[in-house]
Fold:
Amino acid sequence: MLNPFSKVKIPQSADKIIDSAVRRAFRKASKKKKVLLESARSREILRMETMFSTVYRKLKLTVRSYPNISKVHPFYRELTFLLVDVDRLRHSLGALDWASGALRNIKREIITELRRADNMEEMRKIRNRGIARLSSLINRIDEEIEYVRRSGKVLRSLPNVDTGSLSVIVAGMPNTGKSSLIRRLSSGNPEVAPYPFTTKGVLIGHRDIVGIGRVQYVDTPGLLDRPLNDRNEMELQAIAAMKYLEGAALFLMDPTESCGFTLKEQIEVLNEIRGFLEKPVLVVLNKKDIWDDYSKERIRLLKGNFVAISALTGEGISNLEKEVSSLLRHLIKNKR
Ligand SMILES: Nc1nc2c(ncn2[C@@H]2O[C@H](COP(=O)(O)OP(=O)(O)OP(=O)(O)O)[C@@H](O)[C@H]2O)c(=O)[nH]1
Ligand SMILES: [Mg+2]
Structure:
């Protein structure tokens, strides 16, 4: 499943809701020149029907457009709790729901009054009372509408990550070549999607792997530009959410240090991220095309296995693909 919030409805502000409903009502039943008592009555009834139903529908559709937050995939749940005050959002959606019910009752009352009215002046007063009651009700939940608006905008812009396929998280410090690698590994063009706490947006690419199915590569741009212990709680959570994506991770390193970070710094982040992502991490050394003696000497700092590649020339990529496939196959086998 992709972003479960991608279709949430963002309500207009309280003022706009009222304004557009009243306008719609008057457009729908405009005044004709010669007005008989009965046609005036049906006109006002139609106006009130239109006005109340418009708002009722808007509020209901907004409330219904939200998934049950406790049931969304943990990756998205984690990000939701990180980005919005979920209790407040629930309360606000509850207020919108309550208001839509209240509007139905007011509409019924107003229409009953209109049916009983015996002159046009009275009808006009009843209709104006209807407008006033609608306004005061909507203004009363002004803050809740505002909160739903704000949350909706944030949640809608979460990245579309397919939580039903396996993921390969491509982690690494800035400029180590993550984006270049994802472009190499994906078939088709990877997509850039917004992600909390990075202005760069995550790059998401796809690839069908024989015997495994669709795999998505997910970038971590700008998320790892310094050691994790220098980060605030929220930034950490944004990274930690990725642990809920099933699959493996690649940690890309640049032993030439042309990325601007020493290999030692990169190793520190690697060790931190290992504990964090809770999935197998394959170490990938990039920029092999420009390794010099210094790089090779640095590489001796590394303990454990690694795959050497050049995202620029493509050297080592097919070997990396084999490693990734066997890692994922292993995961699938263990799951069964
Ligand atoms: N020589 C060489 N340069 C590379 C290689 N891979 C990436 N680069 C260069 O390194 C720079 C950074 O590459 P990106 O792919 O943008 O790195 P990134 O990790 O996505 O960077 P951020 O998105 O900033 O975190 C670019 O100038 C690339 O051209 C490689 O294998 N060899
Ligand atoms: Mg990048």
